[in-house]
Amino acid sequence: MTEERDMLSGGGEAIVIFVTVSSPEEGERIARRLLEDRLAACINILPHIRSFFSWEGKISDEEELLLIIKSERGLFADLAKAVKECHSYSVPEIIAVPILEGTLSYLQWIQDVTHRDLSPTAIRPGGES
Fold it and tell me: Which range of residues forms the domain containing residue 89?
């Protein structure tokens, strides 16, 4: 019955942030900074994203990487500031969407990891340390 109760929960303050970067090194640098500062619980780096966008009056076509960052709404301003400090773009993409539903254990893990008054060795999803 425990698994059934853990199935879904409202997302509460949990958010997903999307950030595009120009290189794997830049993505790793930003990911490590956000984790060290406890501004995010998890960052996925997806390679080979092809982005089309308008920049300085021209249409650009660039290969980028996409960071998918799990965090909390109350940390967004500090997270965005940290990303800007590490990012090579003058106008980086830093956008957030709410998590509407998720498993209770995963959403609790995001909250536990991003609370700065806890030990940095917080438990990973699934109970692993």
Answer: 2-127
